[in-house]
Amino acid sequence: MRPLSILLLSLLSSLAAERPNILLIFADDHALQAISAYGGRFKDIAPTPNIDRLAKQGAVFERSYCANSICGPSRACILTGKHSLINGFIDNNNSKFNGAQPTFPKYLQAAGYETAVIGKWHLVSDPTGFNYWEVLPDQGSYNNPDFIQMDGSTKRIDGYVTDIITDKSLDWLKNRRDKDKPFVLMTQQKAPHRNWSPAERHYKLFDGKDLPEPETLFDDYANRSETLKKQQMTLEKDFWWGHDLLLHGEPTDPRFRKGMANGEYQRMNTAQQAAFDQAYGAENQKLIDDLAAGKLSDKDVTRWKYQRYIKNYLRCIRAVDENVGRLLDYLDESGLAKNTIVIYSSDQGFYLGEHGWYDKRWMFEESLAMPFLIRWPGVVKPGVRSKALIQNIDYAPTFLEAAGVAVPEDIQGRSLVPVLKNAGVAPADWRKALYYYYSGEGTHRVAAHDGVRSDRYKLFHLPKTDEWQLFDLEKDPQEMKSIHADPAYATVLAEMRKTYQELRAQYKIPQG
Ligand code: CA
User: How far is the CA of 233 from the centre of ligand 1 (A)?
Assistant: First the structure.
């Protein structure tokens, strides 16, 4: 018996030492209020059963946030584990990712992992640190998308982008990777980013239904900084007739913005255009008739825009969810599931009509929050709901520790592995607050700001107007009133300002 038990022991220890694969399924602008595992107002009408499989079999992080709420910067924070002002990719308009700097894919590749990124990249320079990559140019397109190849050429693929990115990911998993090595695959969906162009099979989803509105759809921006009224991301004023609402031609009603057509329609072939017109034509004509007949008040018009927007947004998510199911099914069928960490996340959150907005950027909860669901068989207990304050700079050190690679000193995020091993409960010395920065790039005219969020409070600083805003998230979860000047909160304000200075110093944020 003795030799057999030794054999068994060594077999067990080699299994235990087997390094996990990592599949990061990443969406673009997927707000967590549109994932049923997080609850929210669409839980029953627009559930996400496949993303929810990760919640049932793993953990949901309820306090997961980004460090800079826009596409490129969030991705740069994830790759490097560092804040924007340190990794150098601070905004989408002027930054180019310095691909010579260290990233988690490079560290893992050096440690023997096979690495790939497929889908949206949006960091301007070519991907580095990947054995295989195939990425969308810039934002990419929903219909018949182009993909940049590793040799620099571009290939157009017929079909719907969410399905194609998944097809390519599955092809890499099945046929292209070196199967003797553990892998990291980043499957990065374009959806549900603006301009919310659904797959043909989902055009009629939610037809004839009124989807629930947020309580703050008609926010008047009182009791907060005046700068909130100056941005350009309201449903009321800033939605294009063509680009955002997917209508043809130009509006005659001044309550709709004219001048930008639906470029996705222009990319469709004749049959695709016919299917689109068949699905949307009657509803479009009814709007045009109702406007001409003077039947719609200003609020009616905003409500119509909200319904058109939210239905298309959730239709795009339906395709994302179905494709998450395809990936998870393959992991199950192939036997990879048992040794693969799967994460579902998105580069930031999004306003789904809250505060009358679409888009992101402002440090309010809807855009600051990132979904983070993780399944890691044997490590994360199924059904965990974690309240640990986590941020996208934590992903890189988490992946390194999971792979048994030492986390370099200059990485600013913290590995989540101890939290994951402890049923979602953070160790005693975990961060008590996190730092956020938004550069104030030209798009949508959202003012530059930075700030800190603790478990209960959020402090913003607006440098141009030198204003502070303070929110008590327990008493005012919708963030409708800044209490920075309320004497009852003087001590809280002083403490939060101290935390703000401490975190800026800790993360080596330059002055000014
Ligand atoms: Ca984004």
Answer: 15
pTM of the predicted model, to two decimals? 0.96
Q: Domain-by-domain residue ranges, the chain?
A: 2-161+180-196+317-428, 200-308, 437-506
Placement of tokens 């920075």 in the chain? 484
Q: How far is CA 134 from the centre of its chain?
A: 20
Q: Give the CATH fold of the 437-506 domain.
A: Arylsulfatase, C-terminal domain (3.30.1120)
Amino acid at 76: A
| Domain 2-161+180-196+317-428, CATH | 3.40.720.10
- Cα(192) to ligand 1 centroid in Å equals 9
Alpha carbon of 43 to ligand 1 centroid (Å): 22
CA 362, CA 31: separation in Å to the nearest integer?
14
Quick one: 267 exposed, middle or buried, by C-beta within 10 A (0-12, 13-18, 19+)?
middle
Measured in Å, residue 318 CA sits from the centre of ligand 1 at 17
CA neighbor of 463 nearest in space, from 511, 506, 403, 423:
511
Per-residue pLDDT reduced to its tens digit, 187-245: 999 999 999 999 999 999 999 999 999 999 999 999 999 999 999 999 999 999 999 99
Q: Pull the structure tokens for residue 396.
A: 């890189």
**All residues with CB under 5 Å from ion ligand 1:** 28-29, 71, 347
For residue 509, CA distances in Å to 88, 437, 512 come to 11, 10, 9
Q: How far apart are CA 352 and CA 365, in angstroms?
A: 12
Alpha carbon of 32 to ligand 1 centroid (Å)? 13
CA of 438 to the centre of ligand 1 (A): 14
Between the CA of 267 and the centroid of ligand 1 the distance, in Å, is: 22
Q: How far is the CA of 273 from the centre of ligand 1 (A)?
A: 27
Q: How far does residue 31's CA lie from ligand 1's centre (Å)?
A: 10
Place of tokens 């044997």: 378
Calpha distance 325→54 (Å, rounded): 10
Contact 264, 242 (CB under 8 A): no
CA of 13 to the centre of ligand 1 (A): 42
Dist. CA 194 → ligand 1 center (Å): 9
Please, are residues 308 and 198 in contact by the beta-carbon 8 Å criterion?
A: no
**Locus of tokens 């553990």:** 182
Cα 378 to middle of ligand 1, angstroms? 32
What are the φ and ψ backbone dihedral angles of 183, each rounded to 5 degrees? Answer: -125, 160
The amino acid sitting at 354 is: E
Crossing angle of helices 161-171 and 298-334, in 10° steps, is 20
Digit-coded pLDDT (tens) for 402-423: 999 999 999 999 999 999 999 9
